[in-house]
Amino acid sequence: xxxxxxxxxxxxxxxxxxxxxxxxxxxxxxxxxxxxxxxxxxxxxxxxxxxxxxxxxxxxxxxxxxxxxxxxxxxxxxxxxxxxxxxxxxxxxxxxxxxxxxxxxxxxxxxxxxxxxxxxxxxxxxxxxxxxxxxxxxxxxxxxxxxxxxxxxxxxxxxxxxxxxxxxxxxxxxxxxxxxxxxxxxxxxxxxxxxxxxxxxxxxxxxxxxxxxxxxxxxxxxxxxxxxxxxxxxxxxxxxxxxxxxxxxxxxxxxxxxxxxxxxxxxxxxxxxxxxxxxxxxxxxxxxxxxxxxxxxxxxxxxxxxxxxxxxxxxxxxxxxx
Length: 322
Hints:
By secondary structure, the protein is an alpha/beta fold. It is built from nine helices and twelve strands. The strands form two sheets. Strands 2-5-8-6-9-10-11-12 form an eight-stranded mixed β-sheet, sandwiched between helices. Strands 1-3-4-7 form a four-stranded antiparallel β-sheet. The radius of gyration is 18 Å and the shape is globular.
């Protein structure tokens, strides 16, 4: 467990990264040149029915006062002030099931979650490939309960720091202890029900977007018993890390015009390569930040096809040979 002082220090280091990542819900979104489009406006909505969501055993977020709320933006839906983590299964047709599974971690700067574009839509696409998918709605840092207050807090945050320094991976990990706990609980739940869901407990990977990519990497580096079989990091930070022995295959996708992570070097790729662990890196010319499953005219839209072929190359799109 992190000590209280270490966690506070980690959060202080992590704050700049969260400022940048939070822009996915306020400034970047699908990174389209439609800043004035009506769909860019954040509109509060009722919490959608989630009958298949399974509550994880990590408990309520300590000290949380603002209740969970949702809003629409970019013709998609987002969750905010998540205080209790859940996992929603998207199981494939049994006739197509490969026995592989993926935990899907949406992004949103640890302040919101892009539940549709980076969650449900990704999970449905994976299930169509025969891969069981599980959308992780992890606990979030608290924001003002009302939408005007939320928008004001985000504006103040961005005006305070023009271009924040990137924290170290160690500091990032220290600052997201609740989210790592949620990720560990997700892996534990899927493994505990693997037989009923027709999943091989040794073939469970994770894919994350932006902040979710940060959480995916942290799950490998500090998730103890989680041990993803493979990882996909979609437009996340690429700082160098100390690669654990036996680290899983890694897939990374980023747009060269990403305003947050495209100009920080490729240390993570170099770390995986130096450790002689499998890594595939796609640097798309255009796409911005937060493209997810949005259909755009840029080649970044092809990331899911690339990821799917990569899964196939590693044998996850067919049942494991006896």
